Amino acid sequence: MAQRLALQRLLSLRTRGPLASHGRAFGISAGRRSTFNVQDGSDFQDRVVNSPKPVVVDFHAQWCGPCKILGPRLEKLVAKLEGKVLMAKVDIDDHTDLAIEYEVSAVPTVLAMKNGDVVDKFVGIKDEDQLEAFLKKLIGA
Question: What are the boundaries of the signal sequence (predicted)?
Fold first, then answer.
């Protein structure tokens, strides 16, 4: 009975508490839907290789300092393109097989893929102007 009351109080806080008015802030924005984390090899095949849209693949690692700078920068620019390109994030420690298959020898490595083929690639960190040029080339703008 005490557990049920505690659960009811907790649930009522979610709808009435200080976070309730900011509930949408925790939702998925349109830009975030363009970016996803690859779950496994079949997910990569479905969402990247078989994608009808161009895909930027960010091979990164949690321990990689430059990755922590590049990732958000790239996500922001992909979000600005409003669905013209998708961004797949691949953690090389979780998906070593994909890193080997795509010959990733350093992180960050970013691939541009179109119709299942790698059409461009860079290794290391880039500034926003260079990233914009990379994305425009990928979408043909």
Answer: none
